[in-house]
Specification:
Order of helices and strands of chain B: HHEEHH
Largest sheet of chain B: 2 strands, antiparallel
Shape of chain B: elongated
Number of domains of chain B: 1
Distance between the termini of chain A: 104 Å
Number of helices of chain B: 4
Number of strands of chain A: 9
Strand content of chain B: 5-15%
Radius of gyration of chain A: 45 Å
Structural class of chain A: mainly alpha
Oligomer: heterodimer
Shape of chain A: elongated
CATH topology of the largest domain in chain A: Sodium/glucose cotransporter
Strand content of chain A: 5-15%
Number of domains of chain A: 5
Structural class of chain B: mainly alpha
Distance between the termini of chain B: 12 Å
Strand order of the largest sheet of chain A: 4-6-7-9-8
CATH class of the largest domain in chain A: Mainly Alpha
Helix content of chain B: over 70%
Radius of gyration of chain B: 16 Å
């Protein structure tokens, strides 16, 4: 048994918990350790988008047409994909201009126009009323159903209508008190409500968990998983058509598309979404995570909508229970007392979250953009002379909160009963969609003007009133229903639901088509027709080119006049309080390397602009401009001067862009030069190495020749035998010297390209047998076994036969050098492969380490430790061979490992005639 | 800056892809009787496409570390 008092007690306990969270977060924020500075909290706070409409209404919508609830969440997902482009820009603009609300944003963009700000506020308040009434309806309905537990009785069937309406009034008043406590405890210059954001993030968690709990209970507790629910529903003839839901609805795809567009606009321009996304944003980078986390949240809260809807339709087949209440009535029907209570709290958190943020956002608008501009202009009030206006500002906001909630209640009483939850919400979506052209146009198109924005908004809003709000009131019996059926004064063409004879569409699609046509048409048309003022021109440029600017100081370029710093200080202190103003001035002075108030500040354009922006954070940009103008003497700039400043600025941008480009080019050139220099140094070092190695190599044989000739010269007594031996050495060393010099000449000839090459047809079989014959003496001396394997027929290659023989001789003599006498084996294999011939010369010597294999083809590289091992040659042979093979289009390489012998191979292409 | 621009272009492309996936005529292709794992085809399609789109958005949004060098 759930007694009313239990429900009420739980609700208050929950609200108390919320308040505690908010209080804690505010304390932490004051202490400089904000709890909400996290992309996860930010993403959760965005989920204030999911209201009682989502919580109760989605299921109701799904129960009536299957998929109609989905565009409301798919649309935002699509829009959020564009946030990187759109929202980042809005965030940057809002931070630089201290925007406090959507109305402030629009007013500021179009020349800080108070009139425009006021109009936006009026549209937002009237447009959002149905939405607030929806939350009140949801809370009071869910309460009056839950209190009947375990009976399930729809409120309409009870004779308790007045009681329920009283409940709604109570709910409205309690929420008003709660919101006042939340949002208007003190006046924050940056309009941040960190406590509120923390509470909203908590509420988002609660409603998601509550909804998932019901979903899991229905899907897996009552039924046997998704498949089971759908299978049972498909078996009911009445529900069968909902398996292909887009068939039945007239214009099903069109209304799907319009709902998507509508919710794309809503996610940007609902005042509460603008509040949490833009105004409460602490760090632009949080957007990166929110871009996908928030869609994940929307996906999660929608997964179980269909099973609950079908479960409800199966459980209550007679239609006695409203689909909007399935989330609550299903657990009740299954006698799940606690789950039902959890659902009620979930619905409460969805509704309160929306109401709190929405009314705070609207009250800021009402205060800054509607009431203050009027009060400041009423000279009789002498507001200019009051020392402290912060209490007045807070008072106005509190009043606005109460008023908005009462109006929401009034709408609920007047028109709330005729529509389902979702339809009520969609009326509000259509209202805020009217802001899309002026905001999106405003940040991407400099041509949009104040007059255009005013006309566009007025046109769109008028159509909205006529096609959506008027029918809602008529259906509830407050206006004659004949108005809908026959049109005003019997003029059929003006029927609100079939304007100009456009029929066959659902109400929202119909209203959106006409209102967008009027809105965009008037905005673009009038903007093009009327030329902008200097103020508008300046603001357009500040908004559209926001990413080109360096900071707040940018706006100061447009100001000329005289002012005094103490005047400005007093002005700021009146609206923000002395302490806050003092802080702002100290900070500003510190940025200039001075101290306030000891040093005094020059009241230049920058300071004036700084104060104006600070003030805008408290009272909105339009009012801030009026207030600043009241204490300074400003020279008005005319449009040409503004243009001139803007042109200058864009010239500077172009120059700096070019400069950047030039410096990039310079950097690249420098890097290239540095690389070339490195290369030259390397070559120089290589040349030095070469010269020193060559001289070293030449000296070795020369030294021994000189030593032996000297011995022969000085000692005529030497025996003939000895003499012969010495002369033999001298001859051998001279030969080595000659060979070395020839090779060095060879290398330099090849490298300088002066070598003579005689190309002719070469038969490799012949070359191999010739070289082996030429070397046979050596093989025999050292007892080395030689094996030659050649195919019967090979193609001829085009090359210089002497050079190729040189290569073969080099490879064979290398192989001989490294083979152990007596045990050596050398295999020469000639084979034909794709496009050429391949020759392998394999020995069974000590092999070559992998790290040495890459360098043995370099000049003067000899493998092995040159200190201990006796060098076996000049170190030029392989280098020359490699060059020769390369010259004829082939490749020379080695495969080997320590202790396993080495295999030198080269290829020569056939057919490539040289 | 070029990283910012290229990411912006990827996001715009994803939005267009989403608009394509969730509208006539693609949607009509799946508005047919039958079921996938017991779930009616249209519902299954919408949720799978939705998950895929969000996954792609997450990849683009979190890719800055890799793109910067």
């Amino acid at each position: 048994m759930l007694h009313g008092s239990v429900i009420i007690f739980t609700s208050f306990a929950y609200l108390g918990l919320l308040f505690a969270i908010a209080y804690f977060a505010d304390q932490r924020a004051d202490a400089g350790r904000p709890v909400i500075a996290s992309p996860y909290i930010y993403s959760l706070s965005l989920a204030v988008y999911a209201t009682a409409w989502t919580f109760y209404g989605s299921v109701g919508r799904a129960a009536s047409d299957g998929v109609g609830f989905l565009p409301i969440y798919i649309g935002p997902t699509l829009m959020i994909a564009l946030w990187w482009v759109v929202m980042r820009k809005i965030l940057r603009i809002s931070k630089q201009n201290r925007i406090t609300s959507l109305a402030d944003f629009i007013a500021s963009r179009y020349g800080k126009s108070a009139l425009l700000g006021g109009l936006v506020t009026v549209i937002a308040v009237i447009g959002i009323l149905p939405y607030i009434s929806l939350q009140l309806k949801a809370i009071s309905t869910s309460y009056s159903i839950l209190v009947q537990y375990p009976e399930i009785v729809m409120p309409a069937q009870l004779d308790a209508e007045p009681i329920r309406q009283d409940t709604a009034l109570w709910v409205a008043m309690i929420l008003a008190a709660f919101t006042i406590a939340f949002g208007t405890r003190n006046l924050d210059a940056a309009e941040h409500h960190q406590g509120m954001v923390a509470a909203i993030a908590f509420e988002s968690t609660v409603k998601l968990l509550a909804f998932l709990a019901v979903g899991i209970f229905v899907t897996y507790g009552v039924y046997d998983g998704f498949g089971d629910v759908f299978a049972r529903a498909a078996a009911v003839p009445k529900l069968h058509r909902m398996m292909t839901p887009l068939d039945g609805v007239a214009g099903g795809y069109a209304s799907w598309a319009w709902l998507t567009i509508l919710s794309m606009m809503a996610i940007m321009f609902l005042p509460r979404q603008f509040q949490v996304t833009v105004i409460e944003n602490l760090d632009e980078k949080h957007l990166n995570k929110a871009i996908w986390l928030f869609p994940v949240y929307m996906l999660a809260i929608n997964v179980f909508v269909l099973p609950i809807a079908f479960g409800g339709l199966l459980r209550f087949p007679d239609g006695s229970v409203d689909g909007d209440t399935f989330v609550l009535t299903l657990p009740m029907a299954e006698k799940q007392e606690l789950l039902a209570l959890l659902v009620f709290i979930g619905g409460l958190s969805a509704a309160t979250g929306m109401v709190i943020v929405e009314t705070i956002a609207l009250s800021t608008m009402v205060c800054n953009d509607l009431v203050m501009p009027v009060l400041l202009r009423l000279r009789g009030l002498r507001l200019n002379e009051r020392p402290d206006l912060t209490r007045l500002l807070l008072g106005i906001r509190r009043g606005a909160i109460v008023l908005i909630l009462l109006l929401g209640y009034l709408y609920f009483k007047l028109a709330g009963e005729a529509y389902a939850l979702v339809s009520i919400g969609l009326i509000s979506f259509a209202a805020v969609a009217q802001f899309a052209p002026v905001v999106l146009g405003g940040i991407f198109w400099k041509g949009g003007t104040r007059a255009g924005a005013l006309c566009g908004l007025l046109g769109g809003f008028a159509v909205w009133l006529y096609t959506l709000l008027l029918p809602a009131l008529a259906r509830s019996g407050w206006l004659p229903i004949g108005l809908l059926e026959h049109g005003p004064f019997g003029i059929e063409l003006l029927k609100p639901l079939e304007l100009f004879g456009l029929s066959g569409l659902d109400q929202i699609t119909h209203a959106m088509i006409w209102s967008m046509l009027a809105n965009v048409g008037a905005y673009v048309g009038v903007s093009l027709a009327v030329s902008p003022s200097a103020d508008e021109h300046r603001q357009a440029s500040l908004f559209v080119d926001v990413f080109r600017q360096t900071g707040e100081a940018e706006g100061a370029r447009f100001w000329r006049g005289t002012a005094s710093a103490p005047d400005l200080f007093n002005l700021l202190a009146r609206f923000q309080g002395v302490a806050s103003a003092d802080g702002a001035f100290r900070e500003y002075a510190a940025g200039k390397g001075r101290r306030w108030p000891d040093d005094g500040l020059s009241a230049d354009a920058e300071l004036v602009h700084h104060v104006e922006v600070q003030l805008a954070g408290a009272i909105g940009s339009a009012s801030a401009r009026v207030m600043v103008a009241s204490v300074v003497k400003e020279e008005a700039l005319n449009i040409d001067e503004v243009r001139e400043i803007l042109d200058e600025a864009s010239q500077v941008v172009v120059y700096s862009h070019r400069l950047k480009q030039k410096s990039h080019e310079l950097e690249a050139a420098t890097a290239e030069l540095r690389a070339a220099n490195e290369r030259l140094k390397e070559l120089d070092r290589m040349k030095d190495d070469f010269v020193s190695t060559v001289t070293h190599e030449l000296r070795t044989p020369l030294t021994s020749i000189r030593a032996f000739t000297q011995i022969l010269l000085e000692d005529p007594e030497i025996e003939l035998e000895q003499r012969k031996k010495f002369l033999g050495i001298i001859t051998k060393e001279s030969e080595r010297l000659t060979r070395l010099i020839n090779q060095v000449l060879d290398v330099s000839k090849i490298e300088s390209g002066k070598a003579e090459w005689r190309a002719a047809s070469v038969d490799m079989k012949e070359v191999i047998s010739d070289t082996v014959t030429a070397m046979s003496q050596v093989f025999q001396e050292r007892h080395i076994e030689v094996e030659v394997r050649t195919p019967d027929r090979v193609s001829v290659v085009s090359a210089d036969v002497d050079r190729i023989i040189q290569v073969m001789l080099n490879l064979l003599s290398n192989a001989v050098k490294f083979c152990e006498p007596g045990k050596g084996r050398i295999a020469i294999v000639l084979s034909e492969q794709a496009g050429g011939l391949r020759v392998d010369v394999r020995d069974n010597g000590p092999g070559i380490d992998p790290e040495d294999q890459a360098v043995i083809f370099d000049k003067f590289r000899q493998v092995g430790d040159t200190l201990t091992d006796k060098p076996h040659g000049s170190g030029l042979g392989l280098h020359i061979s490699g060059k020769i093979v390369e010259h004829f289009g082939g490749r020379l390489w080695v495969e080997s490992s320590r202790g396993r012998g080495a295999c030198f191979s080269f290829t020569l292409p056939t057919g490539a005639g040289l | 800056m070029s990283d910012f621009e290229s990411r912006g272009q990827r996001f715009v492309a994803l939005c267009m892809l989403g608009i394509l996936l969730f509208n006539y005529p693609v949607l009509a292709l799946f508005n047919v009787p039958g079921s996938v794992f017991g779930i009616p085809v249209l519902y299954a399609y919408i949720f799978i496409a939705w998950v895929a789109l969000i996954a792609l958005m997450a990849m683009v949004a979190e890719s800055h570390g890799r793109d910067r060098h």
